[in-house]
Amino acid sequence: MDSFRIVIDGKECEAYPGETVLQVAERNGIIIPVFCYHKELRPEGACRVCLVEVEGAPRLATACTLKAMPNMVVRTNTERVRKARAGVIELILNNHTLECPICDKSGECELQMTGFRHGPKKSRYAEPRREKDIVIKGPLIEIDNDRCILCRRCIRMCGENMGNRVLGILKRGYQAYISPFKGDFVESGCEHCGSCIDVCPVGSLLDRAFKYKDRPWRMEKTWTTCTFCGSGCRLEVDTYHGRIKRVVGRIGVNSGHNRGYLCVRGKWGWDVVYSERRLKKPLLRDGEGLREITLQEALEVLKERVCGKPVNLYVESSLTNEELELLSAVFGRENVTSDAYSFSQALSGISEITGRFEADKLSSIYSADIVFVIGDFIEEVTPVVATLLRLSVIQKGKRLIRLGTFPSKLDSVAFQTLLVKEEELLDTLKHFIMGTLDASYTSNNRDIDRVAKVLRNKKVAFVLGGMTLFSPDVKEVAKTVSYLADRLVSKSSVVVVPPKANAIGVAKLFDLKKPSELEGEVNVLVNVELDRDFPGTELKKGFTVLFSPYYTPDVALADLIIPVETGLEKNGTVEGLEGELQLRSSFKPEYSLLEVLRALPLRQVDIRRREVVLNCELGHTKLRKEPDQLYLSVLLGRTGWNSVSYYSENVGKVATGRVLLLNPEDGRGREIVTLKTSGGELTVPVEEKEEIPKGRALLRIERFTRDVSKLLKGYFPSVTGIPCKLLSEA
């Protein structure tokens, strides 16, 4: 791209076509104040604070919307500019409530800082302030319209970037104020990602969990990685005297691959550290009950009852690499199961085509011509990844194609969406293979042929994620996608979005088995919940050790329970979408998994390379059902993923109950039905929705309880594509 020269305040600056004067100035260290502008939002030019003087132009211009032109001469600090800028700030301050001493934004407020630097020294406004005493309180977010400057950052962030369109401006003139369209955050469909709070330049949008808790300048700020899902978001944890006060993403400042975007779990799930369900002391089964013991006593029991014996190791895939290495050294690698089993199956499918037991990085979407997404509910399983996919279209101009079985929020920005039956997903991918290799091939489906034509001679980033990773066909889908990517004319990439923070590390370190294939004498459960991570499976008989931060239902099955720390209390690394990610903590927990493992004797571990067998023969779907059956999908909501809402009081405020979603033709007006699978039965309320495909049943839950887990007995690791019947109705 050819660059050109412009002059800003006497300094020669290099600019590129399409850049604004503000962007060029920022890159060259020249400060121009802004309110409505944000680097993650499209320029709007509404606040007029960024006015600059351009040589030869009769009027001042807004730097955020003014395109840089060759040989342009710009002045940002002339008397004319300073006077106009101060006038704009004076008008904003005329009716802005001066609550800096009690406002949570004080110390971080852009109006506060800009007013000091560029505003008038005193106000000429003598009239009484017009108060908009409109305070809208949601479960987690509060809007104080007295402080709002109507920059519309929150509206644009929610509508354009997040695709939610929850916020808008009601009324007109000085009576205008920001509000959810239905007056209520939950009813308006807010997903509580907190992005609106992060981009608000003043204290109008507030984090209710942080309100009046502390001051920004007093808190210690620690950057770490969120472990609540596979997005692996970088976030800032603010603590004071060793206690977490809030978590912020810092959109536009954050250097992580998430760029500051968070979801409800990352933004508000920090209080799991202080859950009432936290384990306080090690426990040992004594007859029918449990008694408290010391950590040293627990270590002696471990050495006597577990170490040296064949162990069934159940590993949750948000543990750090350091913890995984020590677990393998203490308990071995040969008899291990994990909730990362389905993810490892996807990598196995890719390895049979490429010879590499790994996928590509998420950043490959930015160098591709087309982003091809395969999967459903990516926005529920890994919300921030879905946001980044959306932004690749909005900000980078990529073409997005999605292949799935349910509608998605991503469809609103997609170039083409293909919705097929779950059992036809593999065949559809095979049609793409034929259509891209042979220009004369036709699938007899106009949309499929159109997509195949678009893929030819293009560099494509295939992104596999969401519920498809929990399908019986996950290995064959990943293999087929890899086959398609490998045979496109332009070298393409395959990204598999991990469902948990270190699923990649677990899959690479252990040769995972299904729980039913374990052959040990004792059980060691590390940070897992059987119903959540291994739904429908039963624990092997034998002495059972549970390492857990919380009192989980599995405490009743364990003989020895040892408390461990949560993800926000850890130091270490995980292998994420962009390689190694750092976890850092500013405080030391009472019990540490690493310290416990270091006190145990190590085994002699054979380091062997994983054998990869190349096999380019594509398989067929494993999905089978009777004519009177439906395919069941069980979906944890974004608040319930990783059981966050169960342990977080904050996230629990916006959690929803269980409901079965059916197409009206399948629901037939019924309000309640009994689901039956080969594993069990469950009676649930019904909600009919036109967007649910015929023949599909979508069970949305907040937590995998025992009755839901029984439904999936015998289907691990699948939670979608389960044959079911609707037995009864009311």
- Kindly report the spatial arrangement of strands forming the biggest sheet: 15-14-25-24-23-16-17
**Unreliable sequence segments:** none
Q: Tell me, what is the CATH class of the largest domain?
A: Alpha Beta
- Mean model confidence by pLDDT: 93
Structural write-up:
- The chain is α/β, with parallel strands linked by helices.
- 24% of the residues lie in helices and 22% in strands.
- It contains 21 helices and 33 strands.
- The strands form eight sheets. It has a seven-stranded mixed sheet, with helices on one face. Strands 28-32-29-31-30-33 form a six-stranded mixed barrel.
- α9 (341-354) runs parallel beside α14 and α12 (425-437) packs across α13 (446-455).
- The chain is globular and about 80 Å long.
- The N and C termini lie far apart (66 Å).
Keywords:
six-stranded mixed β-barrel, alpha/beta, 730 residues, Ubiquitin-like (UB roll), Alpha-Beta Plaits, seven-stranded mixed sheet, globular, 21 helices, 22% strand, Rossmann fold, single chain
Short description, anyone?
The protein is built from 21 helices and 33 strands.
Topology:
Elements: E1 4-8, E2 11-15, H1 21-27, E3 51-54, E4 61-62, E5 73-75, H2 79-94, H3 110-118, E6 135-137, E7 141-144, H4 153-161, E8 167-170, E9 177-180, H5 195-199, E10 205-207, E11 220-225, E12 234-240, E13 243-248, H6 264-268, E14 283-286, E15 289-292, H7 295-305, E16 311-315, H8 321-331, E17 336-338, H9 341-354, E18 370-374, H10 378-381, H11 383-394, E19 399-404, E20 416-419, H12 425-437, H13 446-455, E21 460-464, H14 474-487, E22 493-496, H15 503-509, E23 522-526, H16 530-533, E24 544-548, E25 560-563, E26 572-576, E27 579-583, H17 593-598, E28 630-636, H18 644-647, H19 649-652, E29 659-662, H20 664-667, E30 672-676, E31 681-688, E32 696-701, H21 706-711, E33 720-729
Parallel strand pairs: 1-5, 16-17, 16-23, 18-19, 18-21, 19-20, 21-22, 23-24, 24-25, 28-32, 29-31
Antiparallel strand pairs: 1-2, 3-4, 3-5, 6-7, 7-10, 8-9, 11-12, 12-13, 14-15, 14-25, 26-27, 28-33, 29-32, 30-31, 30-33
